[in-house]
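Milestone 3.1: sequence recovery, worked example.
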């Protein structure tokens, strides 16, 4: 390499800037300052209501979901790409009424263009110019699927769009919330891994909020890149006096589920309940565990002297208690 090549800027690690605690949050515990991220979940589980709740909170300085205080209030820019504008107004008015606010007093701006495509250079420049003009503290884009025409499963297509939003955040010091859908049939997947399309979505977010349905209940999980998250926050979409808004359900914690018995415990319980030695087949049916697991467990119990093998089957030693 030539000695004339320009060097990259480098500083000692102990000279890196320190961010004071009071500057780390936009919404305390819920959304980091100037963070990009996803509000994700299955269809019809309140994602848009949660994004609007965040928007009203930042614009008004009132706690999101009635619990999470706003550390930095400011202007909000919203692009509701899927809902009619009168529906958006109605929802915002409902959230405001539930908090005793007037929508007209909030510094909350709505992009009314019918289409904005991040994969269009012209639209991407217009969005950048709009953010530069308004200097919002928060930008809400709902939902991502209406912001492009690329293949969401292709990392090479999705990454440039998310990179543009990251650059938008860095240039204008604005937090960016993107509403995104979860995959169908992803109930057993981790929250971030359940998002539809490329894994780029999960990797991109600094703060992510995930909504899931558990029967008739809504449950919120919070994830941060640089702070502890939390899960299992119960929510409900409540209608009170014409005001429809998300609320945290105040309820007693659910009792802890009993731990599943180990194979050895299952064998001992089955033998304790029996009046005579149990053959292998009967033990397997009583314990409901695989034959290979049962045989390995019995071998360990016999070796340790906790169970005796006889011609009639397995039993406790004569001197042993029959209560496992």
């Amino acid at each position: 390499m030539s000695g004339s090549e320009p060097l990259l800027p480098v500083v000692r690690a102990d000279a890196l800037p320190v961010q004071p605690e009071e500057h780390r949050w936009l919404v305390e515990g819920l959304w980091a300052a100037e963070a990009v991220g996803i509000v994700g979940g299955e269809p019809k589980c309140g994602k848009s209501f949660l994004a609007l709740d965040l928007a009203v909170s930042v614009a008004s300085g009132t706690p999101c979901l009635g619990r999470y205080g706003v550390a930095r209030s400011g202007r909000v820019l919203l692009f509701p790409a899927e809902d009619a504008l009168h529906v958006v107004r109605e929802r915002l008015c409902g959230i405001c009424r539930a908090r005793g606010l007037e929508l007209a007093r909030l510094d909350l701006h709505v992009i009314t263009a019918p289409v904005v495509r991040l994969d269009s250079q012209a639209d991407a420049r217009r969005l950048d110019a709009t953010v530069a003009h308004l200097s919002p503290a928060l930008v809400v884009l709902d939902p991502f699927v209406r912001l492009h025409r690329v293949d969401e499963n292709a990392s090479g297509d999705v990454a440039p769009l998310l990179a543009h939003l990251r650059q938008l955040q860095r240039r204008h010091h604005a937090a960016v919330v993107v509403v995104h859908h979860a995959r169908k049939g992803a109930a057993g997947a981790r929250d971030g891994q359940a998002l539809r399309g490329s894994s780029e979505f999960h990797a991109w977010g600094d703060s992510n909020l995930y909504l899931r349905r558990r029967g008739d209940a809504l449950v919120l999980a919070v994830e941060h890149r640089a702070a502890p998250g939390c899960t299992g926050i119960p929510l409900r979409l409540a209608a009170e006096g014409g005001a429809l808004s998300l609320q945290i359900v105040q309820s007693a914690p659910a009792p802890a589920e009993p731990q599943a018995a180990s194979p050895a415990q299952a064998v001992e319980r089955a033998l304790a309940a029996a009046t005579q030695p149990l053959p292998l087949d009967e033990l397997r049916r009583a314990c409901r565990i695989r034959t290979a697991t049962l045989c390995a467990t019995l071998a360990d119990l016999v070796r340790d002297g906790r169970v005796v093998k006889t011609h009639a089957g397995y039993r406790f030693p004569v001197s042993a208690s029959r209560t496992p």
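The mean pLDDT is 88. The helical segments are 47-60, 85-99, 121-134, 155-172, 200-204, 263-273, 280-287, 291-303.
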